[in-house]
Records
---
Amino acid sequence: MLTASPGNTQLKTVIPAEQIQKRVREMARQISDDYRDRTLNVLGILENGFMFMADLVRSMEINTTCQFIKPKYRRRMDGNVESVEIFFSHDAEVKGKDILLVEGLVHSGVTAEFLMNDLRARAAASVRLATLLDRQSARRVPLQPDYFGFLVDEAFLIGYGLGSPDQTGRNLPGIHAPVRRA
């Protein structure tokens, strides 16, 4: 199925909205079963994870708290080596709490792994990762999400919270990929 996107780019539907909603409900049921009789502290990573997180927590049948963080990156040069530092918008209180980190798309895994290690170091009772989309082919660290919706290989996706480079398209209900023109 082809549709027009912001900027009149042709898009093909990779995952239709109905399929996303069905899988989100299944994931919420599994998470609810895993955390029955406990409060789950859901920590969403902005921007890509906001829509997925909203639908996920609405479908859970357990007590939750919700917070958001936004990673910020800074490149540094240490001698001849370039490194990337990752900072987050605020520190959530996590000591002794069950934390579910929610991502819209796990790509390299570097950011999620860094954040999970940081949360564990700050004495969270447990830290798990949920992602709607898992691009394992791009993984740079040995990270496996605890809960995932769909495996994807497309290099660029928009919709359901994922935005284009100009930040448009996040409101599309399905997941779409640009159609390459010959």
Note: The longest strand covers residues 98-106.
---
Amino acid sequence: MNKLEPLYSGKAKSVYLTDDVDKLILHFRNDTSAFDGEKMEKLERKGEVNNRFNAFIMQKLEEAGVPTHFEKLLSAEESLVKRLEMMPVECVVRNIAAGSLCKRLGVQEGMDLSPPTFEFFLKNDALHDPMINEYHIRAFGWATDEQITAMQNLTFTVNDVLKKLFLDAGLLLVDYKLEFGDFHGQTVLGDEFTPDGCRLWDSETRKKLDKDRFRQGLGGVVEAYEEVAHRLGVPLS
């Protein structure tokens, strides 16, 4: 399989076409951003850590019956993935109150949420990813009823699988976002699952081990990602 021209370059990843119309190459770069790209920095080793972390998580989800776009690792920073027709929505599940939820609703960070909350957001940096609901998704044709149901069900399946996986490693899965796409009629998990797109706290100390370390200027961002990876048993070399 040959790597062709770039298809898309985001804030932290680049996507390349291949000579197989159903496959893409996902390149995890060392770039790190926050606040819709207002804060940006390059962090050594981050691309490799996230690539290997994502591969590990996607394989665990596949084993649990969640269809994903991940195919295989190609190199330290690149993976082969299925080419999906992405839906422009983000699915967010929160197990513990943190981040924007606290600001919007005035609740205290660290409050356990039972049951977990589920929210849809429109994937649009220019609009700062506004919250939307199922009616918006239907009205604007961003996904079908069947796709909406599949996204919700798969997102909660991911929660069941990963909450236990992380807790067994002494970590709390605070919240996370997922993106889905269509692959020949099947709703499939796309994008990534890394500490860039979720919040992870130490279960005893509640030390933050995710991208909030970058957002809040706490330092040790990649070191925190590596700590999470080591606890899970993710091979980093």
Note: The chain has two domains: 3-82, 86-219.
---
Amino acid sequence: MRRALLLDLGGTVFRSGSEMMGIYGEHEPAVRPVVARRGPLGPEPDELWEAMLREEITEREYWARRSDEIGAALGRDWTIQEFMHALYTLPGEPMMRPEAAALIADAQAAGVRIGALTNDLKAFHGDGSMSRDPFIGRLDVLVDGSVTGILKPDPRAYAMAAEQLDRPPSEIVFVDDMPWNVAGAAEAGMIALQLDLVHPELVFDVVREELELDREAA
């Protein structure tokens, strides 16, 4: 039985909101003072991000606050979905990480079952561009906490994904960019790997090793 691959979406498969905010600032000068504070990727300290890492606010609360701040800078009263749509439809900017796309293509060619475990696909993107991305339709399993009502790192979220992937947790390689979600996967018995938002490409080589993809290619 091959190991399966379970991926977070935003930040892991698709580029992070922090990355996209930086690019958005290049298109919209009015928001540059706000997007200078974008987690580990901004030139200015992001106290709101640090509060999230200390679990004083949730990830959803972080993005709601950023949405409100950027909307105010633009003079817009918009929803979180409208904010995310603005970030992820910037001209000429691909959503998917190239390293993720290459890994997924190779894993699928090798017969690896691939699932996504996300908290916010519908909540943040609705029927927008990320939800319509062809990659979503090629997944073997999609578990969206904004549909199930069970968010990572609740153990039930990982159990649900494992059941649908038809693999024991110990045979599932899980990747996420948020430390508490990675810790939750490890506690659930999965092979849990954290993507570093500063160097996102590094984790994909480790995933390949865990899935033995490069060994097969050799």
Note: The two ends are 20 Å apart (CA to CA).
